[in-house]
C-alpha cells in the first residue's frame, strides 16, 4: 500500500512538472512566434489552465516531501503530547478544508460539463476538460492528507518532520557562528 501511495504522489508530481514544461513551451512558442509574425492562439488560456493543473497536482507530492511552507515559530518549542496533539489537530483541520475544497472543485467540473461551458479564446475548449486535472489533484491531495494523518496517529510523528529537524540544525549552526560551527 505504501509503495502504491508513494507512486501516486510521485506520478502526480511528475505530471505537475510536465504541465510546467508545457507552459514554458507555450510561452517560448509565443515569444518566437512574435519575432516572425506568427500568432500562437490561446497561449494565455492554456498557460493558465496548465498552471492550475500543475499547482493542484503538485500538492500531494509537496506535502509528502515536506515542501509546504510551515509556520514553525509557534510550534518550535512544543514537545511530547502537546506537539503530537497539535499535529493531529492541524492535519484534521487541513483534511477537512481539503475535502471541502475538493467537493466544490468536483462540483465545478460537473456543472461545467452539464451546462456545456466552453472557453471564449481563439481555440474553443470544453471548460470541464481543463478543470479535471485540478479536481484530480485535489482528490490526490485529500488522499495524501488522510495518509499523513494515519501515519502521524500510528507513529506519533508526521513524515515531514525530518525536514523540520534539518532546519532546526541549520538555525542552530547559524546562531553559533562560523568559528563554533567549525569546531563540530
From TrEMBL:
Highest taxon listed in the record's lineage? Bacteria
Compartments where found? Cell inner membrane
A molecular function GO annotation? transmembrane transporter activity
Q: Which residues cross the membrane?
A: 7-31, 46-63, 84-107, 127-146
Question: Is-annotated flag, keyword Transmembrane helix?
Answer: yes
Among Pfam families, the record links this protein to: DctQ
Key word Flavoprotein present: no
Location (main, coarse)? membrane
| GO term, biological process aspect, one | C4-dicarboxylate transport
**What positions belong to coiled-coil segments?**
none
What GO cellular-component annotations does this UniProt entry give? plasma membrane
| Residue stretches making up the Tripartite ATP-independent periplasmic transporters DctQ component domain | 23-154
Annotated membrane topology is: Multi-pass membrane protein
Keyword annotations of the record? Cell inner membrane, Cell membrane, Membrane, Transmembrane, Transmembrane helix, Transport
Task: Name the protein family.
Answer: Belongs to the TRAP transporter small permease family.
Description of how the protein assembles with itself and partners: The complex comprises the extracytoplasmic solute receptor protein and the two transmembrane proteins.
This chain's function reads: Part of the tripartite ATP-independent periplasmic (TRAP) transport system.
Q: What is this protein called?
A: TRAP transporter small permease protein
